[in-house]
Structures are given as structure tokens and as C-alpha cells.
């Protein structure tokens, strides 16, 4: 088993997909152990550390990478299986921003009312009990919630030598912020440039669907991914697979267009896997599908279309990449 580890220093973090040289090269079949910093770069460490004072725009939402995948070419698909995602600290953080989030005025939703207050919430992370603790800032209410680690941001370099801020989700991946991207899930990304140049970041101890206030329970993560390359198979939008479901994503504004992209991709994917007529697949997805929300606050919004694999006759897409990578991940975990 080929295993490599990488922990970036503060000056080695990336804030774009594309426009940056690779930090290293990996071969398909490699296990990669990564450290990812939280969306504030670790600078918000207490309730008095307001992001507007301790962080500098646009240096938010850092990612670890990019990694060059040997043999990856445009028209291929990169498969990244998340073997494990574990909080690297015993604390995490969330905030409200004056002009960011679903329930405040933004630069594109201009309103005359005052902006929201900038407030920081600190969460206690109990990795043994698998909980995070919420504490109200303006009262004595407190409650434990289950730890459900995920990555909000994963992607490859965009096409045409473009560089995109990590906060923006699109066809290359990026800041999709879907809670579906947890350990045990394989994400499929269409390769746009030689080497793919994938990066990962924005760890969340948990997140509600939509990331309504603009931030999740933001945390640094120790993450393990298994890497595979599917040659000659294109993927138009990021797709996800777990043991029981296939999922398609779409990112755009307005939200209904993100919804349409994700549903269109799932319908056409289901038709290609089963041989169904497209309208038959449309009917099947309409009755059996779910539509989890990714984010409704970033520069593009993200929707997910989700369907049980059992409704499709339990197919193994992408040459059974998820099954193989799941096995590789289990072998890695059993060796530790």
C-alpha cells in the first residue's frame, strides 16, 4: 500500500482552484493523509476573535493542495474516497457575518436595514463521545449534537487556465458545503487539466443543510483519502457515491438552476447506467429521489440530487471505483 502524508505550513495553504503549482504528485491507488486548516486559517480561537479583525480577505477558506495525479488528463475522472475525516482539535468555531449568510443583506441582495452583528460561537468537540456542544452567546442554553465530520470544499483545477476562489462552487467542485461529503463517500470530479490538481479543505464537525448562517461548525481536520483515476470517462458535474446512494451536484444562482443541474445530471446518469429511456429515468428519479441542500450563501448555491442504488438495480458506476476504494480504505484502517 502506497501511503503519503502532507501537512501544509501556513504559507503553503491555497486559496484558489487553479493558478497554483502542485505541492506534490500522487499515483492512482495511493492513500493520502492530509491536515486541513479551518476556514479561518486557525485565527479565530475565542469569542473575541472577530473574523473581520483577525482574518484578511480574500485569505479565507484555505485548502490543502493541489496534488498532481499521475496520468490524469482532460476527459478523465478523478475518484477521491474519503476513508476518514477526524477533528484535529478539541474545539471548533462558527460565526455570523454582517453581509454573508442566507438571512442578511449581501452585496447582491441590497437592503436598507442594518447588517447582522458579527458574533463568534465556540464549540467543544468531544472526539471520544462523538459530540459537539453548542452554547448560546446571549443566554444560558446549551445542547449536545452528534459529531458528523465532513468537508465543505473539494475540487480540481478548472478548465481553460482559470483560477477560481475556493469559496465558489462550480463544475470543478469547490465550496459545495454538502453534509453528504462525509467519511465512506467517494466523490467523482471531471479532470480539466493535466494532473487534475485536486485540493481539499473547509472541514466541518457538523453542518445543517444549507449552511444557513454562512458557516458550519468549522474545524481543522486530519483526513485520509484514497485516490483513483478512471481513464477516458468524463464527469460533467461533481458526483458522490456511498454504499447505498448515487448523488449528483449542481452549483449556480439562482437556487432553482442549481436544483435543475443536479436533477438533470442524476436523470441522465441513471439512464446511462440502466439503459432506461431518458423520460423513464426522469419518472424514476422524480418518485424515488431526494434533494439535500448544499449551501445557500456562497457566490454560487449548491443542490444535491440523491437516489438509492437499489432503485437502479444496484449498479457499480465508474468501473466499481467506490467498491475498490472502500476496500482499500478498510485495508488502510485495519493496518493502523
Largest sheet: 8 strands, mixed
Runs with pLDDT <50, length 5+? none
Number of helical segments?
4
**Category by helix and strand content:** alpha+beta
Number of β-strand runs: 19
Helix share, percent: 10-25%
Tell me the count of domains: 1
**Topology as a string of helices (H) and strands (E):** EEEEHEEEEEEEEEEEEEEHHEH
Mean pLDDT: 97
- The N- and C-terminal alpha carbons lie at a distance of 12 Å
What is the CATH C level class, in words? Mainly Beta
Q: What fold name goes in the CATH topology slot?
A: Jelly Rolls
The CATH superfamily is known as Acetamidase/Formamidase-like domains
The CATH architecture: Sandwich
Please characterize this protein's 3D structure.
The structure is a single chain. With 336 residues, the protein is α+β, with helices and mostly antiparallel strands. The protein has a single domain, classed as Jelly Rolls (Sandwich), CATH 2.60.120.580. The protein contains 4 helices and 19 strands. It has helices spanning 51-54, 255-274, 278-288, 317-335; strands spanning 3-6, 16-17, 24-26, 31-36, 63-69, 77-87, 91-96, 119-126, 131-135, 142-146, 150-155, 164-165, 173-175, 186-190, 196-204, 221-230, 239-241, 245-252, 301-308. The strands form 4 sheets. Strands 1-4-16-6-14-17-18-19 form an 8-stranded mixed sheet. Strands 3-5-15-11-13 form a 5-stranded mixed sheet, with no helix packed on it. It has a 4-stranded antiparallel sheet with strand order 7-8-9-10, with no helix packed on it. α2 packs across α3. The two termini are 12 Å apart. The mean pLDDT is 97. GO terms for molecular function: hydrolase activity, acting on carbon-nitrogen (but not peptide) bonds, in linear amides. This is Acetamidase/formamidase. It comes from Sphaerisporangium siamense.
